[in-house]
């Protein structure tokens, strides 16, 4: 028997869950389909924490983060759970070659009216003695940065979507999409129709958008974070004394979190570039753990205790490392959203609002103009 809805959302990562949450609150008859279980660990939306920040080196993303903030707070009010903690954040450079990255963050915050302080090496050491940096180091401190509890955010959005009437189907893989009015979606467990469709496929995006004649030239990368138990002065790595950080460095940036719910700080490298088949196995890499430990020993030596719980996740990355959010060409009732390139989670509640707006009204006030479909995707052949 075919089930009928106003909107079907495929993919219950952060973006799809957020879209379903907003749609259901808006009174849309919504179906959310997930090929694995809700809040699974195979994609890009799980874990203890994700960075939240206005401090971008691109003012378009800074604006989108600012627009997303009240949607996270609204989700907290709906769910009765604290999901976003603001503790401040540092953008660091310890070599002049990386000053432009930090300067760009300050410039973008200036353009959007964000708060920040510039810190030189002496000021960084005085305020955050945990760091070992060169005398040439500089930083921008953003008091509005913090972290989101990633897995709990997804679970809360799905729960609120269901509370407002959405149907949630987990462990259902999509076998076929038939565009049209209505659009049809066939899974290994059901046959569904809807006026509108949102595809938020993450690393599996190309398996889904081939039905609307698109393929994105994305890279699927396995990334990894690792926890480190402090050797001494563990209290200095608590969230009230150690903000989240992004360290602009060669060959790739590092980022990290204070001690949150585990007895150690969390540190990773951004865009390691280790390619992987999303349908294949993934395991944390000992080589990566060793390199991150070397980094922590060099720059945060008091935290460089035994590494534990190395955790893998996926980046689905476009050639320009920007997102893709737009209507599928030739289908004004199908919206695609994916390829968030390793920096999308913080926008999830806001992007969910944008996706709901697009299928409900054809436009949105959310700042997504810079992530619409671009030449590398337009006209890509179906496979």
From TrEMBL:
Task: Please verify whether the record's keywords include Signal.
Answer: no
Q: Which residues form the FAD dependent oxidoreductase domain?
A: 6-358
UniProt xrefs under InterPro entries: FAD-dep_OxRdtase, FAD/NAD-bd_sf, MTOX
Cited Pfam families: DAO
Could you say which cofactors this protein requires? FAD
Q: Which UniProt keywords apply?
A: FAD, Flavoprotein, Oxidoreductase
The domain of life is: Bacteria
Molecular function terms, GO-annotated: flavin adenine dinucleotide binding; sarcosine oxidase activity
Which NCBIfam families has this protein been placed in? PRK11259.1 (NF008425)
**This protein is called what?**
N-methyl-L-tryptophan oxidase
Natural source organism: Candidatus Thermofonsia Clade 3 bacterium
């Amino acid at each position: 028997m075919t089930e009928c809805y106003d909107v079907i959302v495929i993919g219950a990562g952060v973006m799809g869950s957020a879209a379903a949450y907003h749609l259901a609150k808006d009174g849309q008859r919504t179906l959310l389909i997930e090929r694995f279980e809700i809040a699974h660990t195979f994609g890009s939306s799980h874990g203890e924490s994700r960075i939240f920040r206005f401090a971008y080196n691109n003012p378009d993303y800074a604006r989108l983060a600012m627009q997303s903030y009240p949607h996270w707070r609204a989700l907290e009010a709906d769910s009765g759970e604290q999901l976003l903690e603001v503790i401040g954040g540092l953008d660091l450079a310890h070599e002049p070659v990386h000053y432009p990255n930090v300067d760009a963050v300050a410039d973008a915050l200036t353009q959007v009216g964000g708060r920040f302080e510039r810190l030189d090496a002496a000021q960084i050491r005085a305020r955050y003695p945990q760091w070992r940096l060169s005398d040439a180091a500089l930083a921008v401190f953003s008091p509005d940065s913090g972290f989101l509890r990633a897995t709990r955010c997804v679970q809360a959005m799905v729960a609120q979507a269901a509370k407002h009437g959405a149907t949630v189907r987990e462990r259902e893989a999509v076998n076929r999409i038939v565009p049209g009015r209505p659009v049809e979606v066939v899974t290994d467990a059901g046959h569904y129709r809807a006026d509108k469709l949102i595809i938020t496929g993450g690393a599996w995006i190309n398996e889904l958008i081939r039905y609307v004649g698109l393929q994105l030239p994305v890279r699927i990368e396995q990334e990894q974070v690792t926890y480190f138990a402090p050797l001494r002065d563990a209290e200095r790595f608590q969230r009230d004394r150690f903000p989240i950080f992004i360290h602009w460095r060669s060959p790739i940036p590092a980022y990290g979190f204070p001690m949150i719910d585990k007895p150690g700080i969390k540190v990773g490298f951004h865009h390691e570039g280790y390619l992987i088949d999303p349908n294949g196995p993934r395991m944390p890499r000992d080589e990566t753990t060793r390199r991150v430990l070397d980094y922590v020993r060099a720059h945060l030596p008091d935290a460089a205790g035994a590494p534990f719980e190395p955790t893998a996740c996926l980046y689905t990355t476009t050639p320009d490392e920007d997102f893709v959010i737009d209507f599928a060409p030739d289908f004004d009732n199908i919206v695609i959203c994916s390829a968030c390139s390793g920096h999308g989670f913080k926008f999830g509640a806001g992007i969910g609002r944008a996706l709901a707006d697009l299928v409900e009204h054809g436009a949105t006030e959310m700042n997504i103009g810079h992530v619409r479909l671009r030449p590398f995707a337009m006209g890509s052949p179906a496979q």
